[in-house]
Specification:
The chain is of the alpha+beta class. It has helices spanning 10-21, 25-36, 85-100, 158-161, and strands spanning 2-4, 39-47, 50-62, 68-76, 104-108, 127-128, 137-141, 151-154. The model has no long low-confidence stretch (mean pLDDT 96).
Length: 162
Amino acid sequence: MIRHARPADHAAIREINEAAFAQPDEARLIEALRAAGDVMFELVAEADGAVVGHILFSRLWADRTELIAALAPMAVHPEHQRKGLGGRLIEMGIETCREFGAHAVIVLGHPDYYPRFGFSADAASKVSSPYSGSPAFMALELERGALAEPMFVAYPDAFSEV
């Protein structure tokens, strides 16, 4: 089951991210984004009544008016990885971004994983950010042509503080 995260999930979300990434940086990022009010939404995956996966989307500040979302981070507890939960979180997250009115989603992620969901470095080629140029910097248009023209995006401060 995938649902929106609740405050009662925060401890489990921290544990999942620390376990999945084997360090606390992503958990700190999540908490900093929440504290700054920069979270668009968070989803969790449950298995047997326990939270075992998490994904967060925040708003990127663009030099245009379109809403651009950042996917980061996404984690599944190691005991539940390789079962499709991460993929389902990403798919539901993309659909929720559409419902929020986002025109595109940008991710800094594994270049062999995210393309299966439609993300590509090519789609991000006209987007300038501190992460531009990396093969891990990928984008997905939710509205056709949203990334056709050059744009600059700024990440929330939490991304540079953690």
